[in-house]
Each structure stands twice: as structure tokens, then as C-alpha cells.
């Protein structure tokens, strides 16, 4: 089954029939930044193993829902 999935994903990419969406939902507009630059900052901080950078990059309320 895994090989079938990989073959179908390869065919979809090859013939440009595959689209990937990332959506962020929030109850308030001012919670999520306009750009998604903070994702790269999180990945860089995680790669460096610095927990302080991860905690300070983005503040979220419990009412917010982030999908992505």
C-alpha cells in the first residue's frame, strides 16, 4: 500500500496535479502575523536547541486555533 501511495504522489507531482494547502485559523485577526516568517525562526531555534527562542517567538492565547 505504501508503494502505491508513493507512486500516486510521484505521478501527481510529475503531472502538476497535486496542491498542498496550509491554513491558519484564529478568532482574532491580530493574533497571527501577516507573514509566516516566524515558522522559519521556530525551526532555526529548534535546530539550535534553544528553548528560550521558541517560547519568545510567538505568543498565543488559549482561544486561538492554529492549523498548518
Mean pLDDT: 75
Tell me the distance between the termini. 26 Å
Rounded Rg:
17 Å
| Strand portion | under 5%
Low-confidence spans: none
Q: Characterize the overall form.
A: extended
Compute the number of helices: 3
How many distinct domains?
1
Helix content: 40-55%
Report the strand count: 0
Instruction: Tell me the series of helices and strands, N- to C-terminal.
Output: HHH
- State the major sheet: none
Structural class: mainly alpha
EC number: 2.1.1.79
Enzyme class: transferase
GO molecular function: cyclopropane-fatty-acyl-phospholipid synthase activity
Protein name: Cyclopropane-fatty-acyl-phospholipid synthase
Keywords:
68 residues, mainly alpha, extended, cyclopropane-fatty-acyl-phospholipid synthase activity, methyltransferase, Cyclopropane-fatty-acyl-phospholipid synthase
Q: Can you walk me through this structure?
A:
One of its GO terms (molecular function) is cyclopropane-fatty-acyl-phospholipid synthase activity. This is Cyclopropane-fatty-acyl-phospholipid synthase. Keywords: Methyltransferase, Transferase. This protein is mainly alpha-helical and 68 residues long. The protein has one domain. It has 3 helices and no strands. Helix 2 runs antiparallel to helix 3. It is extended and about 40 Å long. The relative contact order is 0.18.
Amino acid at each position: 500500500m505504501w508503494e502505491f501511495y508513493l507512486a500516486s504522489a510521484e505521478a501527481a507531482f510529475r503531472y502538476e496535479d497535486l496542491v498542498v494547502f496550509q491554513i491558519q485559523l484564529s478568532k482574532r485577526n491580530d493574533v497571527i502575523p501577516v507573514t509566516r516568517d516566524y515558522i522559519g525562526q521556530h525551526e532555526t531555534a529548534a535546530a539550535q536547541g534553544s528553548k528560550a527562542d521558541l517560547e519568545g517567538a510567538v505568543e498565543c492565547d488559549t482561544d486561538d486555533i492554529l492549523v498548518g
